[in-house]
Amino acid sequence: MYRFIRFFVLGLPAFLFLCALVIPFVPGAMGMFSDSAGLWYQPVTARLFLAALFYSYPVTFLCTSFRDEMFLSPGYYLVLAGYTLLWILILRWIFRRFEDRARKAS
Question: How does 33-51 read in b/e, with b if 16+ C-beta sit within 10 Å?
């Protein structure tokens, strides 16, 4: 059970990065505010895109405060990949600390 939770927590930033990378280019995937029925996958992709927006907000704020034309450019995705890597490394370090404490206690 612990391994599953660890894998899920460490994989979540990578999954949200992939959502932020892929979903804007899927036709009709971001119809959060449309009145039409939408495509069959729109209820799922709209929620995933919203989660990716919340996840990538610090990068979006950083990129738009420096240069407005950097938003959704290759540089933006490069900064987002670095942000994702930072989250994965921090979460991995936290899990390793808990694992080391558990080893010392037993």
Answer: eeeeeeeeebeebbebbeb
